[in-house]
Design goal:
CATH topology: TIM Barrel
Shape: globular
Number of domains: 1
Radius of gyration: 18 Å
Structural class: alpha/beta
Distance between the termini: 29 Å
Number of helices: 8
Strand content: 15-25%
Helix content: 25-40%
Largest sheet: 9 strands, mixed
Order of helices and strands: EHEHEHHEHEHEHEEEH
CATH class: Alpha Beta
Strand order of the largest sheet: 6-5-4-3-2-1-7-8-9
CATH architecture: Alpha-Beta Barrel
Length: about 270
């Protein structure tokens, strides 16, 4: 079988295009490399529209709106509507801590209207147990897929059990991971396995348009290309032969042993060209 990295771009489809619409966040998690608290930056509405224009050049399955905490972006509802209208047949995914969803009815309604899946980090660092408990029933009643992710090193056993029970009760998915945003001293990993397949997995687009083919690689000197490059579409699927700076510190979300995984994404639907 031909490795996916060797297939012509025309025969390949990106799993997820992620747009980081803000580096602002309403939490200050020690392990997080994606947010800058209240001092962060919002992606302008005009830039977001241009990014959607660029994404029309490539086939992908899911559009993931991320941050920072995306729901604190002042134009969150409008951005969500624009993305949903531009790619109506793609799976819309929101990465959030659910705090704003629980406290702002307008933001919650926008989420229900535009997103198929909501991914929520929940542990001691996020300190959002009450908010998660409030929004899970509402999201699930609307038919939204909900995935709760807990970092094992940042959650007490009783909290972990409570979250698992809550997810079971409402049909949400609960997954756990180990801390991955710190240097844990493991030996250098080869550029293979999940890393090698990341060219067909995730494209992360930063607030300023810098692009990374890994969710964890966010250092400015690691950006491989930008969404503004004339050959952007070709670069998305170009072979990757070197590590990001962060690779040697990455667990690749090492599995904790929990066998439950998110439901498969909807069948591949290519963005309009």
């Amino acid at each position: 079988m031909t490795p996916s990295s060797l297939l012509p771009a025309a025969q390949r489809t990106l799993k997820t295009a992620k747009i980081k619409i803000t580096t602002k966040c309403n939490r200050h998690c020690d392990f997080c490399i994606f947010a800058e608290g209240g001092q962060g930056e919002n992606m302008p509405l005009s830039t977001f529209t241009q990014v959607l224009d660029r994404l029309e050049q490539i086939p992908f399955r899911q559009l993931h709106i991320n941050g920072g905490e995306p729901t604190v972006h002042r134009d969150f509802s409008q951005l969500s509507s624009l993305a949903h209208d531009r790619f109506p047949n793609l799976t819309m995914v929101l990465g959030t801590n659910a705090i704003t969803l629980a406290r702002n009815d307008r933001i919650l309604e926008s989420t229900l209207a535009h997103y198929d899946q909501v991914l929520i980090g929940c542990d001691e660092e996020h300190d959002n147990y009450d908010e998660v408990r409030a929004v899970i029933p509402v999201l699930r009643e609307a038919g939204t897929t909900v995935v709760i992710n807990s970092v094992l090193e940042a959650i007490a056993p009783d909290r972990l059990a409570d979250l698992a029970a809550l997810c079971d009760e409402h049909g949400a998915i609960h997954v756990t991971n180990h801390v991955h945003h710190i240097d844990v001293g493991q030996p250098a990993n080869d550029l293979g396995g999940l890393c090698d397949r990341n060219v067909d997995q995730h494209l992360m687009i930063e607030v300023d348009g810098d692009c990374y083919r890994c969710f964890n690689a966010m250092a400015k000197n690691d950006s491989e290309f930008t969404v503004w490059d004339d050959d952007f579409a070709a670069k998305v699927f170009a072979p990757r032969r070197k590590h990001y700076d962060f690779c040697l510190k990455c667990h690749e979300y090492q599995d904790s042993g929990l066998q439950i995984v998110p439901a498969p994404a909807a069948p591949t639907r290519t963005a309009a060209v």
